[in-house]
Amino acid sequence: MSITIDHNEYKELLESIRFIYGYDFTEYAELSVKRRIIHFMKNKEIYALDKLGKLLLKDERIFEEFVQELSVTVTEMFRDPTFYKSIRDNLVKRLATYPILRIWIAGCATGQEVYSMAILLKEENLLERSIIYATDINQKSLQTAREGVYSLTNMKLYTSNYLDAGGKKSFSEYYMAKYSSVMFDKSLRENVVFSPHNLVADQSFNEFQLIICRNVIMYFNQNLQNRVVDLFYESLCPFGFLGLGDKESLLFADKKDYFEETDKKEKIFMKIK
């Protein structure tokens, strides 16, 4: 059975969610959110949006599943390896000049990007004086990130990515395999702070030398993208760096002139004023 979502009903549902739960999806890209809502409804065999709304507003467990569906959780270790190679080649020397290095990975999903950065920092002898803040709106994803346990089936891809990103050791040194899963070494997360943070509603909470937010703002409308870029600008120290996803840009951001491209291809920017 096909499902269509009326614009006004859609807006009404998101406003109800914001009022009841405090989650604001109203400025996410509408087509993307509608697609995810329809996928969720089909899985639950719900074919009317008003029925979905009533269920979400009375059942917090179902609502948590709904947030999981709407949150962007597609990720992998050293995703887009040339991005990490660029950090090694172009940023590490500058980052090494700070006595304490603060890094914010915003929208960290299930944490693969966090462990990737921790491994890179470890190999560049920076991890011990780094604090990585790993945040996401999705509590279930954050719990996965905290545990650092992933499927063994992904390790071939992750190993290939690691090597392409300039990895200096054997990737298998960083995890222990057991049955069909691997657990990443706990030393990689000793300097990581996992915490919920909502880019839509929450404020800056520290000053950072590097902020990484890849493949997240592409799901926001232009107004929300602007606000999030403003948040990152406020959160960066002078000459701090911002890394975005390969389909993302500062081209239409109000603060675009406040950044300089460090690596145009890899979407790495430096705050210059």
From TrEMBL:
Keywords: Methyltransferase, Transferase. This is Chemotaxis protein methyltransferase CheR. Residues 1-260 form the CheR-type methyltransferase domain. One of its GO terms (biological process) is methylation. It holds the Pfam family CheR. GO terms for molecular function: S-adenosylmethionine-dependent methyltransferase activity. Coiled coil: none annotated. SMART domains: MeTrc. PROSITE patterns: CHER.
